[in-house]
Amino acid sequence: MVRMMLRFDNEKVHEPVTSQVILEEKIPLNIMSAYVNQQGGEILIDVDSEHAERLAKAFRKRGVTVDVPKLIEKDEVKCTSCGACVSLCPMNALKYDPSNKVELNEAVCNGITCGLCVDACPVRAIRLLG
Length: 130
Ligand code: SF4
Ligand code: SF4
What we know:
This protein is α+β, with helices and mostly antiparallel strands. The chain has helices at 17-25, 49-61, 116-120, and strands at 2-8, 30-37, 40-47, 65-67, 72-74, 94-96, 102-104, 126-128. The two termini are 20 Å apart.
C-alpha cells in the first residue's frame, strides 16, 4: 500500500477530478483524510502499490500535485514515552511497544491533515514534514 497526498489548487478544486480518475483508470483508492474549501484542497489517499504509479500519473496529467510524503518524524532522543500523544491519535499510529516505549507507525499516520500529536507533545519530539 502506498500513501499519497493530492493537492488541488483553487481551479482544480471545482472539477470532479478524483471521481474522473477513479472511473477512467478503474483504480480503487481509500481516502484517509480530506481538507477542501473554495481555495483548494488536500486529500490523503491509500492505493495498492501495483497501481500507485499509474494513479499518480493520472492525477498529475489533470493538474493535481501528487506527493508521496514522509509525513511526520519522531525524535527518539527527545521522546520520553510519556504517552500524551497516544490516546489522541485517530489512526493508532502511536502505540506503546512491549517495552513501554512509544512507537510511531508512519505508514498509517494522516500527517499534515491531522497533526494532533505535534501540539500535544510536551517536549516537541514530533514534527510534521512536507
Ligand atoms: S499526525 Fe495525527 S495520525 Fe499522525 S501520528 Fe500524529 S496524531 Fe496520529
Ligand atoms: S507526547 Fe511526545 S514525549 Fe510523549 S510519548 Fe508522544 S512523542 Fe513521546
